[in-house]
Design brief:
Helix 3 runs parallel beside helix 6 (about 120-130). Strands 1-2-3 form a 3-stranded parallel sheet. A two-stranded antiparallel sheet has the order 4-5. The protein is of the alpha/beta class. The protein has helices at about 1-10, 45-50, 60-80, 95-100, 115-120, 120-130, and strands spanning about 20-25, 85-90, 135-140, 150, 160, 175, 175-180. The radius of gyration is 19 Å and the shape is globular. The protein is built from 6 helices and 7 strands.
Length: about 180
């Protein structure tokens, strides 16, 4: 990329190149082996989304999440050694970091009603990367709210899943009111 940039804009053009690499864990949307074979690892059970995977959806333990923090640090080290100037830790689109932000129904250190607990994983990742790589800049891509899952009607038009009202999680929403922003966010 740097070589192509220099070729196009000149050898002194490096000052305007700012390269980052996005780090994520796909969580319940993981497909690590085959694109058409879901292998979800969720932050919390979701009765609407879980039923899309007939084999069931395993939920990561607090200890699993603790180990993943170190995986993010290892990935950040690789990014820095490859010349990236920043990493973007993904907390959007229902991936693991985002799902944890709305994991009100999750027990343990990484869930429950307290926003502080639901932010713990992202804070731990950021703090651990900062400690290991103080010169590497960190950005976070976050979806600021969730909506209830949709399903297709027979005519192909989407509609809110009627079972979604029973789901007590989602980031940026207060339970029972899909239109209001969560306190403190």
């Amino acid at each position: 990329l740097i070589s192509a940039h220099r070729e196009k804009f000149g050898s002194n053009a490096d000052g305007d190149v700012f390269l980052g690499l996005q780090l994520t864990h796909s969580g319940r949307w993981s497909r690590p082996n085959l694109f058409d074979r879901p292998e979800p690892l969720a932050a919390v059970h979701n009765p609407v989304l879980d039923r899309r995977v007939p084999a069931g959806v395993p939920v990561l333990s607090d200890e699993d999440l603790d180990r993943l923090v170190e995986d993010f640090v290892a990935a950040a080290r690789l990014a820095a050694s490859a010349g990236y100037q920043f990493i973007d830790v993904k907390a959007c689109h229902g991936y693991l970091g985002h799902e944890l932000l709305g994991a009100r129904a999750r027990q343990g250190r990484y869930g429950g009603p307290a926003l502080e607990n639901r932010m713990r994983f992202m804070r731990n990742v950021i703090d651990a990367v900062r400690a290991a790589l103080p010169g590497l800049l960190i950005a976070v891509r976050v979806s600021v709210f969730d909506l209830v899952p949709y399903r297709k009607r027979e005519d192909g038009i989407g509609e809110p899943d009627p079972d979604a009202a029973a789901v007590n999680h989602g980031f940026g929403l207060t339970h029972g009111d899909q239109a209001s922003i969560e306190d403190g966010v």
